[in-house]
Amino acid sequence: MGDGPLADAYDAGVRAAAPPVDAATGAALRFLSAAIAARSVVEVGTGCGTSGIWLLRGMVPEGILTTVDVNAAYQDYARSAFARAGFGAGRARLIRGTALEVLPRLTDGGYDMVSVDADQVSYPAYLEEALRLLRPGGVVVFNNVMVGSDEPDGPLRVPGPAEIAVREVMQRMREDESFIPLLVPVGEGLLAAIRP
């Protein structure tokens, strides 16, 4: 983490047990938002602002990030991190609440990108919301899709709820021809898909 605001947000996330995205994952998020010239991005899981800074750095200069988190302290820290990184108050809209309560209130087809780094068990529900929120050609991104288990692999191991949910999202993207998916092996795994 070479620059101050990003390094500070990273350190705050580690201290607060809000796992920040690593630099490679952040760079991938920035690349994806820049590649589609994103003007409007929804982020599920604000944390302390690391992924939001990466997304904002890739978005067009007038782009607006809408970021959702249940934790007030994280959002307060993220707001100050965005300001320290040079993004004015109008560039990020922080909404406190659970994503499954907030996302249904957002505009259908109003977003270029939906980035999810939150409760993995809810990934299938977040995918449904993303499909409604994305414009044609929009991109949905899920972080932490290479979930592992502390249990040794074997014939008697039963996958946990998070692992089952992530597999469901991956399978849907693979089998549904309305997606063009890509698994990016950075950090804990990034699953991105274009909605043609």
Automatic annotation (TrEMBL):
<dbReference type="Pfam" id="PF01596">
    <property type="entry name" value="Methyltransf_3"/>
</dbReference>
<dbReference type="InterPro" id="IPR050362">
    <property type="entry name" value="Cation-dep_OMT"/>
</dbReference>
<keyword id="KW-0489">Methyltransferase</keyword>
<keyword id="KW-0949">S-adenosyl-L-methionine</keyword>
<keyword id="KW-0808">Transferase</keyword>
<dbReference type="InterPro" id="IPR029063">
    <property type="entry name" value="SAM-dependent_MTases_sf"/>
</dbReference>
<protein>
    <submittedName>
        <fullName>O-methyltransferase</fullName>
    </submittedName>
</protein>
<dbReference type="InterPro" id="IPR002935">
    <property type="entry name" value="SAM_O-MeTrfase"/>
</dbReference>
